[in-house]
Write a structure and sequence with these properties.
single chain; alpha/beta; Rossmann fold; eight-stranded mixed sheet; two-stranded antiparallel sheet; 10 strands; globular; disordered N terminus; binds zinc ion; AB_hydrolase_fold; oxidoreductase; Cholesterol_Oxidase
Length: 378
Amino acid sequence: MIFRTTGSPARTARRGARTATVPRPLRHRLDPAAVEEIPFDAGDGVRLGLTRVGEGSGEGPAVLLLHGHTASADMFLLPETRNLVDVLLDDGYEPWLLDWRGSCRLPYNETGRRYTYDDVALYDIPEAVAYIRQRIGDRPLFVVAHCIGSLALSLSMTAGLVPGLAGVVSQGVFLTPKLAGRTSLRMSVAGELLKGRIDHIPVDFRTVGLRSKYTPLFALAGRKASCPDPTCQILHNSAWGTGASLFVHEHLCETTHHRLAELLGPAPLWILPHLRRMELARTVVRWHDTDHRYRALPANALDAAARIDTPVLLLAGSENGLWLDSQELCRDVLARRQPQLDVSYAEIPGYGHLDTFLGRGAALDVFGHILDFLGERR
Ligand SMILES: [Zn+2]
């Protein structure tokens, strides 16, 4: 059985393996000698993945890459395209890849303990930044973050937990999450309907089988779909059943399209209440209001935006089918409320959400914006 329901004894038993196992191997075409995989735990002891790419002891500014939820560091290393790590290495940067606790490379992806984005902002990102700083000394450290990785980073930044970054590139969403109308509606409906019965939305139809409780979800996602691949349908047409769209279909090369179930894991439903709260507030908010362990995080990240102490480039595809124009909204709101901040916005014409990193043409259409931003501040 692949998908477990809440409270399964097997699930509890597996928790012990959480810190004893290593992340699934990365898929890349780099020289293995240049890839350093570091045993790394978050501030609360949860095993994460941290990888440094580069020869020798390293030189050049460091760039920490943060993936989106259910994705992994693999999204920056696609062997089938010219990927962001290639581009950064060629320009003299030292890429660092964090697999934070929502990574599909981590063995506890579906069985580990539940968390909220508070944990990512409080325990995962600051710990990774602190570790990297210790390794790179006084070299500059940038962050390039995608989707929920960027949203969680905004919470870390406004909490003052990662001060002194040389610059931040945020893709898709930052301080002002705004989801497509039907997405937010379905998020609440799906959350209610599915509560207690299943706790993940799978993406790989091959592991689900033809007759399962997930079949209606895939059937719904497959309606009016032009692509016959059920994994693609549930991501492209339905973003794990939410009704949003994660990428512009023709931007993926055939190999990437074929690997979607490997690049994006099942989506946990128990995270929806935190996401829903943010979506209703139109800003990144802390989940834990009374638990003192989280008091370092601001209750409302937008209200604490004055703490941002680094230049920020907000990136978004003009056709982002998940977060719409959240980034443009963020630029406008920050320009009004925090005019002293160095915040810019770049829109990628014709691009959706994930294809800004996974797209076969991303090196030409997207990464130049990132390199320009970093280059001006290195
Ligand atoms: Zn497809």
